[in-house]
Amino acid sequence: MGALRAQFWELPLDTLTRAEWEALCDGCGQCCLHKLEDADTGEVLHTNVACKLLDIETAQCSNYRNRRAFVPDCLRLTARLLPEIRWLPDTCAYVRRAKDLPLPQWHYLLTGDRDDVRRAGVSVAGRVITEDEAGPLEHHIVEPSFGDAGASTGTKARRA
Ligand code: SF4
Asked: Is residue 160 in some structural domain?
């Protein structure tokens, strides 16, 4: 990973280096859960079923570098794409910075502890099943239930 500027998370998203962009992710794993779209209403339906590459105990991708070789439709998140994506959680660092909101107070870039995302109840680690064992996704529709503890705290204005 390249050098990271001091408090780079307060900078506009479109000015971040690749390394800074990657470092912004809190590792919650929520974007790695399958979603369904209601054909009639367009509503996004959440499931508790994880992508086959997600380590469901740690909420980390087991092959991040080569993930698109195994999951071709895995989205590569960019600042340009963000406004079009409706299913990312409100806690997502990219979503918040795109709205010029601060990082959640539990974000590891602020606390120095990557496990704080789990303590905040935001990580999917240990709370989901893998698609290899799930069967039909329609049987696993859930209310979005991963917390947003601390996401709304702090005042508006910063990173990107
Ligand atoms: S939802 Fe956002 S912060 Fe959480 S793992 Fe996905 S990209 Fe990272």
From this structure: no
* Domain membership flag for residue 104: yes
User: Could you give the CA distance from residue 80 to residue 100 in angstroms, rounded to a whole number?
Assistant: 15
Give me ligand 1 centre to Cα 117, in Å: 11
Q: How far is CA 64 from CA 19, 52, 69, 120, in A?
A: 14, 12, 10, 24
pLDDT at 47 over 90: yes
Q: Is residue 148 part of a domain?
A: no
1 located within any domain: no
Q: Which atom of ligand 1 is nearest to the CA of 93?
A: 3
Render pLDDT for 81-114 as a digit per residue (tens, 0 to 9): 999 998 999 999 999 999 999 999 999 999 999 9
Give pLDDT, residue 148: 56
Residues spanned by the domain of 117 = 8-142
Whole-number Å distance, alpha carbon 68 to ligand 1 midpoint, is: 17
Cα–Cα distance, 45 to 23 (Å, whole number): 28
Q: Tell me how many domains the chain contains.
A: 1
CA of 94 to the centre of ligand 1 (A): 7
